[in-house]
Write a structure and sequence with these properties.
Chain lengths: 637, 480
């Protein structure tokens, strides 16, 4: 790969080729190791899965429009809601923000050239593809009617393609584990010098917390579905009560993963929202450290509350009480986040761009979703609400309303950066409203009918629930049409959108210093680390074009930066290494001299590279100055 | 700088990069060799954490089932061969040493030592798998398997015994009844014994089966009497009639017939296959012990007569027209059958059993003059239809006798055993591939003090595989 790209570099024009056109052809995408390309392929896969899962959701809602049979019979209905759940959970919202958008943006936000293990990253993607295919081929092989939770003993008896689905989930699990592992190593080892843990953008913090859960929780799901698969074809009896096994053990194992999985979905969404709210309020995020800590504490707490899914499964009263109490403790970090977001909005310079609309609707939806979660954490209330539409509405408020809305917000926020195109802002705003209203119309009535006793997963219902189901179905179509429109206009923007500038929103994190779209190794020069979430010197020079105009007194000193060490000419590297060979200790920060901080005065002007840098690798030339104006670059991009 | 001293001390290495002797295996998105090594090391530790969690569910299952059923564990662990387990433990611990040594050799640039260490580790991994292969095949041979396949033979003496599956000698007084298929799934019992009530311990009835030659004669009231001409005892298994009478041919009956079918308690009767009992012949059996609740009802000895392959007759010898519903009417000729809802009143869940009977038309009018002259019907154990007994190691058989009958669900122990050791074995197998790959690269001379990450990471992986085994060995083999 290195030689190939060097060639491009040598022929290169003044403008670096960006990652989209640095190499061409289908094969260059299929074997790419570039995190942005892999992320983009993930994004396409996820959008396709979203359409599939959404289609099943609409079919479910259509069936429930009237009591009794509306369009399909009971068995088909069971398959619809199962496939809706399985596709949406395993293929869309778990990988949605981390694997797709996180893959594209997290290394850039870190100022890193790529993730730590690019080949592993590509492997994860192909595992995702294999798992996705296995989940989808259950449809011709008899579908799946166990619910996405695959509870035993029914999943041992079901005549549908449970085995294919569980093996698919197993493979998807390893995709998720490897992604998390990759991100953890990247965040630990690829932070540039000058970016401490508390100079990381909150999105990176959120992805870090997510990755911990991906690595530590997913293996338990892996072994669980593996045992379920073996149980199905070899009848080992571990979950089968007629052979001495314990079906509730399956539930424990399943929720030991799947509760953290809920946080794997929501924490990256929270990270995105932190970015959006700060940028579009032009204010530093209130209580940065608290928000960062709350992500990690949510991740840790998520391992301790799985039992609240099983209050009525016959576990001991003591266990119920402990799990209930621990469940309430989850409210603390969640509330910290919400309060800090609201405090950030307070007196902020709020601009209601499309991503911000999504962020604001996230705030409302997540608050409702979180508070209704407390209802379900109360033991006595849960007995009444368990397995009703109240639960359905609650988890859709968190998993769909919060996570997917944040996903859409993030997609709109970073779309110009990684595609180089602006989307249609009017349509964007319209659809953001459509999503918010359609979502609430779909799921608010479900709280009402759930509290009145409508059980979840039922094909038929009493006539008293008809009006709520009909409102819900109408809302689902508003939501579905809005989201489909989003996909359509985003895809059209590849062709028709106007060229995006380097920094269309006035964001302060590192990705907005990278060219639009970024080159192969993300930065044409080492990015300059400014104070996090400081918007004071960002100026909107024309609509949707922001630039950093450093105030005279706060001008960061001229720092050559010793740049990405491996981007330097070998001779220069050698000289440097010689200079500091003695006493060099790997634990010293200078061991990884990728990026030089500018905010402090501990600068080390070791070299001033000039035009002789032509031999360096593409996309990673060495900087000569801190922050040259970029007008010319943006002009012809 | 003292390159080697640094390297040997562990993680602190790789400064050669700055001096120009860069390993070609340093990927270009890393700053230097040290950066690549550190990233890989952190990555492998995370992977190992993942591995621990991956196994953790099985350890939880072990603890849970042990807590609930200690008797299973203390009974079943005696089946495991401590000697083989101990050999494997020693082999793995030694291979961990050589794996760690390989890292040191790579750090000190000792190519021969590196190759030797990797080769020895690889050999140990393969040895482990070979030992495991012998353990597994032994268990497969003796039916010491997971879940419902746990079906070892426990002999009560010198007699040749059969299991209900007809595939091992021995006897077991507790018979496991599979509600799903309504078949006994494990356990051995004497060839001529039948178990009328598998829910109760022990065997409740004896069954003698004879092959008869004779004919049915009707008197003027159309009442049937069988005129016996010859009788020969045959050795046949006594099994559930509903399931064993069925033959593969036949078609499904109309829905109405199926609905009309009444549940029939599974009476025991000999499973006389067409190969045993010839067309046109009859067989008779006599059961002692409590009766099944067939229409005749009542207790006491129970004689019955049936015609070989005559689907019109019910198990107690009556004609279909007189009423028992489980065999189709043969007046249609070939392929009658009926679906029976198997839903008795003896606490068993209902299930559907498809009964298909092949009708071969009216029986041959004239029986063979002297059936006993036909030596082909001198059936004994090992003949077709009654499968041969597998040979059985006398020594093990004696051990089994001293163990007594197994507790219920003993198969659960072996579920856990095979799940844990199987998953561990897969990890060892993966390790074999990794060490083959490392061996090839070591021979090619890829590893230098500057670049030995793969060796280090594989060694760490190997240590965790070893560590897991160190937990498995006492938990499964040693603890009583």
């Amino acid at each position: 790969m290195a030689t190939k790209t060097t060639k491009v570099r040598n022929d290169g024009p003044v403008n670096e080729p960006d990652y989209l056109n640095v190499t061409k052809g289908l094969k260059s995408w299929l074997v790419t190791l570039d995190h942005k390309r892999i992320g983009l392929m993930y994004l396409y896969g996820i959008l396709i899965s979203l359409i599939v899962g959404g289609a099943f959701a609409l079919l479910v809602r259509m069936e429930l429009f009237l009591p009794g049979k509306t369009i399909v019979d009971q068995d088909t209905y069971n398959k619809f809601f199962t496939l809706h759940g399985a596709v949406m959970v395993f293929l869309v919202i778990i990988p949605g923000i981390p694997a797709a958008l996180g893959n594209i943006m997290m290394p850039i936000q870190l100022g890193a050239p790529d993730v730590a293990f690019p080949k592993l990253n590509l492997t994860s993607f192909y595992l995702w593809v294999i798992g996705a295919i296995m989940l989808v081929v259950t449809i011709p092989f008899g579908g799946l009617d166990t619910g996405w939770t695959l509870y035993t003993p029914y999943s041992l008896e079901s005549k549908t393609a449970v085995l294919i689905a569980t093996m698919g989930v197993f493979v998807l699990g390893f995709s998720s584990i490897f992604t998390g592992l990759n991100f953890l190593v990247t965040i630990h080892k690829f932070r540039p010098q000058g970016m401490g843990w508390f100079q990381m953008p909150l999105n990176v913090w959120a992805i870090y917390a997510t990755a911990i859960m991906q690595v530590l929780a997913t293996p338990v799901l892996g072994i669980t579905v593996l045992l379920l698969s073996v149980e199905r074809f070899a009848h080992i009896g571990i979950f089968d009560p007629t052979r001495g096994g314990d079906p509730v053990l399956f539930q424990h194992f399943f929720w030991f993963y799947s509760h953290p999985a809920v946080y794997i979905m929501i924490i990256p969404a929270m990270g995105v929202i932190s970015e959006l709210i700060s940028t579009f309020s032009r204010k530093p995020l209130f209580g940065y450290r608290f928000v960062a800590y709350s992500s990690v504490s949510l991740a840790l707490l998520s391992f301790l509350v799985w039992g609240h899914h099983m209050f009525v499964s016959g576990q001991s009263r003591l266990a119920n009480m402990v799990f209930s109490a621990l469940t309430f403790s989850v409210g603390i970090p969640s509330a910290i986040k919400v309060f800090n977001w609201v405090a950030t909005l307070y007196k902020g310079d709020i601009r209601l761009k499309t991503p911000m609309l999504y962020a604001l609707s996230f705030l409302i939806i997540f608050t409702i979703g979180g508070l209704t979660g407390l209802f379900l954490g109360i033991l006595s209330v849960d007995v009444h609400l368990h397995d009703t539409y109240f639960v359905v509405a609650h988890f859709h408020y968190v998993m769909m309303g919060s996570t997917l809305v944040a996903f859409l917000g993030a997609l709109h926020y970073w779309w110009p950066k990684f595609t180089g195109r602006m989307y249609n802002e009017q349509l964007g705003k319209l659809c953001a409203w459509g999503v918010a209203l359609g979502f609430n119309l779909t799921f608010l009535p479900q709280f009402v009918m759930g509290s009145r006793g409508m059980p979840r997963r039922y094909w038929d219902y009493d006539a008293q629930y008809t009006i709520f189901h009909q409102l819900s179905t109408i809302g689902a179509f508003v939501l579905g049409i809005s989201m489909f429109t989003v996909v359509v206009y985003l895809m059209m923007s590849w062709k028709t959108g106007k060229r995006a500038p380097r920094n269309p929103w006035g964001g302060s994190s590192l990705e907005w210093q990278a060219p639009t779209p970024p080159p192969l190794y993300n930065f044409e020069k080492p990015p300059v680390i400014h104070e996090l979430y400081n918007y004071d010197d960002l100026v909107e020079v024309e609509e949707d074009v922001w630039e950093r105009r450093a105030p005279v007194d706060a001008e960061p000193s001229e720092v050559p930066g010793d740049a990405h060490a491996h981007a330097k000419p070998e001779a220069q590297k050698k000289a440097e290494a010689d200079a500091k060979a003695e006493g060099d200790h790997p634990e010293e920060p200078t061991a990884h001299p990728r990026i030089t901080p500018t905010s402090e005065d501990e600068t080390k002007p070791e070299h001033v590279p000039g035009s002789e840098d032509l031999e360096t690798k593409p996309g990673r030339p060495v900087a000569t100055a801190v922050e040259p104006p970029d007008e010319n670059k943006e002009g012809d991009k | 700088m003292s390159e080697k001293a640094h390297a040997a001390s562990g993680d602190d290495h790789g400064h050669g990069h700055g001096h120009g002797d860069v390993s070609p295996f340093i990927q270009h998105h890393y700053d230097d060799a040290q950066h690549q090594f550190d990233s890989g090391k952190f990555g492998i530790w995370l992977f190992l954490a993942q591995e621990v969690l991956f196994f953790s569910a099985l350890f939880v299952a072990y603890v849970l089932y042990r807590y609930h059923h200690p008797e299973i564990y203390s009974y079943a662990h005696k089946y495991l061969d401590v000697k083989m387990g101990a050999i494997n433990t020693a082999v793995l611990i030694f291979s961990s040493l050589t794996a760690a040594w390989a890292v040191r050799c790579a750090q000190l640039n000792q190519k021969k030592g590196l190759i030797l260490c990797i080769a020895v580790t690889l050999g140990c991994a393969m040895t482990f798998l070979v030992v495991k292969y012998f353990e597994y095949t032994h268990k497969v041979h003796e039916h010491i398997l997971f879940g419902r396949y746990y079906d070892p033979c426990v002999s009560s003496g010198g007699a040749e015994l059969l299991t209900k599956n007809n595939n091992c000698p021995g006897e077991k007084t507790t018979i496991e009844w599979d509600y799903g298929t309504a078949k006994p799934t494990s356990g051995c019992f004497a060839a001529v014994a039948i178990d009328l009530d598998p829910r109760a311990e022990g065997i409740q009835a004896q069954c003698e089966v004879s092959e008869l030659a004779g004919s049915i004669q009707r008197d003027k009231d159309n009442k049937e009497t069988f005129v016996e001409k010859a009788r020969k005892p045959i050795t046949a298994q006594c099994v559930d009639p509903i399931l064993e009478v069925s033959t593969p041919a036949g078609s499904m009956p109309a829905a109405g017939e199926a609905a009309a079918a009444k549940p029939v308690y599974p009476c025991w009767r000999p499973a006389v296959q067409p190969a045993v009992c010839r067309d046109g012949w009859y067989f008779a059996w006599r059961c002692t012990g409590p009766l099944c609740d067939a229409e005749s009802g009542g207790d006491g000895p129970y004689d019955s007569l049936n015609k070989c392959n005559d689907a019109r007759r019910t198990m107690d010898g009556k004609l279909k027209s007189q009423g028992t519903p489980w065999i189709g009417d043969c007046s249609m000729g070939q392929g009658a059958g009926i679906l029976v809802e198997y839903n008795d009143h003896a606490h068993r869940p209902s299930s559907s059993v498809r009964i298909a009977a092949t009708c071969k038309g009216p029986p041959a009018p004239t029986p063979v003059a002297d059936p006993l002259a036909d030596k082909a019907h001198q059936l004994k154990l090992g003949d077709k239809g009654i499968k041969p007994a597998v040979t059985y190691d006398k020594h093990t058989q004696k051990d089994r006798e001293s163990m007594g009958p197994p507790p219920d669900n003993t198969g659960m122990f072996f579920t856990i055993y095979f799940a844990m050791t199987g998953l561990h074995g897969i990890h060892v197998l993966f390790g074999v591939f990794v060490f083959i790959w490392l061996l090839i690269r070591a021979v090619k001379g890829h590893f230098t003090p500057d670049y030995f990450g793969p060796i280090d990471f594989a060694a760490l992986y190997w240590h965790i595989v070893d560590l897991i085994w160190i937990f498995l060995f006492p938990l499964l083999y040693l603890i009583h």
